[in-house]
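Record format v2
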Amino acid sequence: MIVFAPIIIPLIFIILSLSLGKASGAVQRIVFMAGNVTTIGVAVTILRRVLNEGYLVAQAGAWEAPYGITMVADTFSGIMLTLTSLTVGVVSLYSMAWREDKLNKPVFFALIFGLQMGMNGAFIAGDLFNLYVWFEVMLISSFVLISYGSKKIQLKGTLKYVTMNLVSSFFFVAGIAVLYSAVGTLNMADLAYRVREANGELNLFAPSALILMGFAVKSAIFPFFFWLPDSYHTPPLPVTALFSGTLTKVGVYSMIRFYSLIHLPGDVFYTQLFLFIASTTMISGVLMATSQFEVRRLLSFHIVSQIGYMIMGLGLFTRLALTGAIFYIIGHCIVKTNLFLLSGIGYKITGTFNLKQSGGLMKHKPFIAILFFISALALVGIPPLSGFFGKFMLIKGGVESHEFIHVASALGVSFLTLFSMLKIWNEAYAKDIPEDSQTQDFQFGKAPKQLVISSVILVVVTLSLTFGSKFIIDICDTAANQLLDIDGYIRVILNR
Amino acid sequence: MNTTLLQLAARAIRIMMLVISVFVLLRGHNQPGGGFIGGLLAGGGIVIYVIAFHTHQLLSKTLRAMAPLRVIGLVLALGSGVLGMVLGKSFLHAQWFNLNIPLLGTLHMGTPLLFDIGVYLAVTGVMVMVILLLMEDRKWN
Amino acid sequence: MLSIVIGVLYAVGIFFLLRRSMVRIILGVLFLGNATNLLIFVTAGLKANGQPSFLAKTAEATKPALSDSLPQALILTAIVISFGVVAYLLTLLRKTHEVTGESDLDRLK
């Protein structure tokens, strides 16, 4: 029963925040935070129960598995639920202190809950069409959020974002249609069962290519990533931080979920395809990032680059590599959100997002500099921090599978990431305030405490990923094992 | 668009569409129809009426009247789902019971009807809101 | 026959998407949406003998009047979603026009 809670609770809070339009601001904000806390609580409960029981399955309306709407939570979904609800919670805290009037309206709160509902639904959807519906719920909320405030540059970014994502959705639905005509089912467990039963006789090339198109645009992998850096830097910063941490992960999650089902052992084609995609995504993202001087654009290109690592885990498709990929997703989601939040704090202080015009943060705001330092190193993967474990497992998995070219590109991309993080560090933190710019005689602004607090929370989570790495890696390992154990998945859902 | 012809027709069309929409809503369980289509019909009727008698007051009055429909509709639809859960079955599990109406006989009722009514209200509210907001001249933010 | 229609709809939709005018983009999205709905209908719904495909292959053939109802449910859902998306796009179009006074994408800088 609790499987439905991640969908129902945001929906209840959407209704609440819409109907509280006339209440005072404080009440609205309390409801907003209460909603976030409840969602986090539900997600953690699901994760704990999944760790104990393996799978949680629920059928809407009690219709039997291949016919009705199935909701499944396994460890991977539990992890993703917890991760995204935590991120959304922290960003909500941040957005309330961002002091932009539009971000404190009930409509905004309802949209955040809508986004949350869509993501949660996508994580626990048990059949493909349901996944598509939740994608759309998530996308429509994100469309409105990304155009929220309607500045001119923002509308331009929105158009690219909306058009690309809509086209990808159409590809996805077309893929679903072709898949249904080929296999005759859309339930993921039933799909996996029939694919295995047919033993390679089914030709799934067209549907899986179409569906890959759909996922590829949403998770911004090579060569479909151009919309992301073009639109992610335009909305208000809390929205950017939220999107960068969570949205692309939903695409990656669905890709891992879907292709692990139809991926037959010993199928070289998918392995090579995904590894190729992974390497090209990593390299192209990081190369474009190095040439940027706008913090938000730079970080956006980094998202693209790091999606590559996650896809690499899918491409290698061994237990170790998948564990690494899942751990990397956790670390990346938190760290990337935090980097955006910190760049927002930097903006509040220096009044610009442009690296060339900012500076002196190290000297005047050492605490924020420390926060940034930890996050940046965690992103690059300097040993004891969170990025390291994920990358290490991925690379070890790659070496074990003898994919040396891709391992080499992963390592090279790491160095380039370090380089561009150092660039932010040098420009915004270490160097002095530039003298020739207009900022010569300006005062440092103040960053509201709440902004710093939300960033501190995420840094604490990052550090706890280091200190609790054994525990987290165990969970990721369970998740990876469950992903590989398709027969168990089929058995639980279909009772076969 | 204040032409007499349209205004005359709009009165009739509004009533007809509202009645038919309820009919479509109720027949939706086993035959083509249902909440979404009914809601579209009802919304269409209201919108035609507003177009025919287009004044500022009417527009904002309709908008205000339609605002609670969305929330009520969502609450009904969600409630019908949660009801199944509360009664110990799965989410959205249908609950059926027979309603005895004197003189008319028994009526087979269930929570799917409640769900459909919720959808009907929500669709009507949202559709009217979208079209009227797009029609409106004033700048909105 | 229907497949030709689908092809034409896809072509027209993509052609419209590549135009500069924003109105054309909305039309393009509409065309693509309808093409996809028809695609679901043709690939999944229109089988020669209309057997619901979730029945086992060995099941007794149903009457020809009965066809697979799942694709129709899928299409209905897809229509509802594209309804919402088009409503959003129209609002976006109006807002963009209001803010910038342009409907030409190239001049939207």
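Chain A has a mean pLDDT of 84.
Residues 2-494 of chain A form one domain.
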